[in-house]
Design goal:
With 356 residues, chain A is of the alpha/beta class. Chain A is 46% helix and 17% strand. Chain A contains 14 helices and 12 strands. In chain A, helix 1 crosses helix 3, helix 8 packs across helix 9 and helix 10 packs across helix 11. At the A-B interface, helix 4, helix 5, helix 8 and helix 14 of A face helix 4, helix 5, helix 8 and helix 14 of B. Chain B binds a DNA duplex (30 and 30 nucleotides) through helix 2 and helix 4.
Chain lengths: 356, 356
DNA sequence: AATAATTTCGTGTGCGGACACAGGAAATAT
DNA sequence: ATATTTCCTGTGTCCGCACACGAAATTATT
């Protein structure tokens, strides 16, 4: 909690330093045309007192307009990215009065070329800041290099690429969320229980996120020496549910002691649907993210836990921090791991209702 | 997401309505001295367009100052109420620029008289709004009646009294949080497991909160027909830990199949300490709120789950909503149940680190 | 020493809205 | 018809800050 002294105005500083308001202003924004002597006088006062500008007056007076662009995957409604977009919209609304204009650009998350195309449009657009969902690693790095060379700040959302010189990243620690999932899923399973672990083949590569989650999951197992359980690794496809269903049916036929199952992407609803059809809702099931379908199966008792992360808030805070940096000249934290929210049938209602 | 048209100024409305800015201003604040004709003209324009005032300019120009008072229990550091206070402080900081001044008043939560004393001080103080932790029901109602008759708005924090005409309430649904606790605690316990349920005698009455939590807990048990477990109801005192310890030792001596324990107030750390001394950390233990000591035992693996609710945020939002109502003339939601956060060793770190 | 070229600095204006105040128009009183 | 009162309405000032412009002070040039 910083103590900001709202009482002190530029005018006061000017009086204290024995110069005019204009001079104080020049020092504050350090845009030159100030003698060493005056500058020193002002800076002395600034050190003594704790000046923090009146932000209302500042943005009222400033005629500077900022254009922010966010670059996210095109998506269906009720998708994970829908929430992210909601958060951006909400921030756009709140920060409009600070002369901030937020535009959205979409790319095809299954086609790196579309990312490249939109990237170059953005560069031409000369925005004041960019928010990026770095789905494609190399292509993102190309974009961020361009941005850095043009001194355009940018932030990552959802996941990050450490080498890039981003302002902030908001997102979950995927490894740890996999670890948490393991704890919830494997806690007090009977001996010799079998656990189905789904891996989804996807057009393009498997996402970093799901890989990290799985690593965290496996780490829990090795760390706790859980040799009394058996993992059944299943590979499902992203587009053919019939095949998936047949595969699952076979697995459940062949293995009589399956007690739990997990998938590391956000589409646990598919798995839930098949389990329900197979009448195996006794299987403890965990998934990620609050897609409508996922929530339905959680309330149904088919899914036991969902791990969530408020993607809308992540987007909102990303915008907020950019404003803090650019406009209010405040320090912001670079890497922000958001909480790993544990939802079950009994507590999801208030979680979803709660709007801040 | 409301579409606010930031472009339209009072000056524009004046031009459109064929009157002066002053007249528009008088209509907007409806402080009279306007002829029917002019008033109608302005109101016609106001209906056509979607005017929303520039809040920055408004609060910059306004010399109105607001004094808010919050009325909470005096407390130790690292207490539950400490977090509430932090939230108030944080709001005070953020809303200072809107000419809001927040004062804190404390009462002794074990002495209703102290509440009454501070109440009358507050009334004399003629604040613009009050935030109340309604620990003492009748005394609180006396206060709120006074406030209502003086048209001073107020909000509840932590718990609420339905009959009072409050602006907002932020808090957890205690009944449901007891229900969640039961689910977590009793999930897949072996047959004939014994469960220790602590009730804490307190100077003054048992708090509504803990009663509601316990009701929710019991409801889960009856709803799920858990006849295979045995509850051991223990009454601990609030001030003598030696007695408590001896009591627990006896209970554990006499009962050989204790698998779980729970306490419904925020002091699970005491229970944890005794269990650790008794070397019974195999017992699954659940408690409430992130007191430092509680967190310590969670990380220690003595406590399995903590249910939390971000009291600081509740306080912050309470202030925010009062501003929204009083200053920005926005609608606010009256009853706000906050999420029931489930914390365990594996996810508490990011939960605590995360500052918005 | 006089003038030109720079550097430094103070003042004025406007952002959008709140509010005070003066002065004009209409209504009433003389 | 003039004076007085009441009712309306337009204008001006201020809130704290950003920024432009022109004036003053300093330095350089002849």
């Amino acid at each position: 909690m910083k103590t900001q002294n709202t009482k002190i105005r530029i005018k006061d500083i000017a009086t204290l330093a024995g110069v005019s308001e204009g001079t104080v202003d020049r020092v504050l924004h350090n845009r030159g045309e100030v003698s060493e002597k005056s500058k020193a006088a002002v800076e002395k006062i600034l050190e003594e007192i704790n000046y923090s500008p009146n932000l209302l007056a500042r943005s009222l007076a400033s005629k500077k307009h900022y254009r922010f662009i966010c670059l996210i995957p095109a998506h269906q409604v009720a998708d994970y990215w829908e929430s992210v977009e909601t958060g951006f919209d909400s921030a756009a609304h709140d920060y409009l009065q600070y002369n901030i204009h937020l535009e959205k650009q979409y790319f095809n998350q299954f086609d790196a070329n579309s990312f490249v195309t939109v990237s170059s449009q953005i560069i031409q657009n000369k925005p004041d800041a960019v928010f990026i969902a770095p789905i494609f690693r190399d292509e993102t790095l190309n974009l961020t290099r361009e941005l850095t060379s043009r001194q355009i700040p940018f932030s990552f959302i959802d996941s990050m690429i450490e080498e890039a010189d981003f302002l902030t990243y908001y997102g979950q620690d995927s490894f740890q969320s996999g670890y948490v999932a393991a704890k919830l899923l494997l806690n007090s399973l009977p001996d010799n229980a079998q656990v189905v672990v789904i891996r989804t083949k996807r057009k393009g590569a498997e996402s970093n996120q799901t890989i990290a989650r799985k690593n965290g999951f496996m780490h829990f197992i090795s760390e706790n020496g859980l040799s009394n359980i058996e993992l059944l690794n299943i590979e499902m496809t992203d587009d053919d549910e019939n095949t998936n269903f047949e595969l699952l049916r076979e697995v459940f036929d062949l293995n009589s002691n399956i007690k739990a199952a997990i998938t590391f992407n956000s589409k646990v609803c598919r798995l839930a649907k098949h389990l329900k059809t197979l009448n195996r809702i006794d299987v403890r099931l965990i998934g990620y993210d609050l897609l409508e379908e996922n929530v339905k199966y959680l309330k149904n008792d088919v899914v036991s836990y969902l791990l969530a992360q408020r993607p809308d808030k992540q987007a909102y805070l990303t915008v907020r921090d950019m404003c803090a940096e650019l406009i209010f000249k405040q320090k912001v934290k670079k890497i922000n791991h958001v909480p790993i929210d544990i939802l079950m049938k009994e507590n999801i209602e208030y979680y979803m209702q709660f709007r801040e």
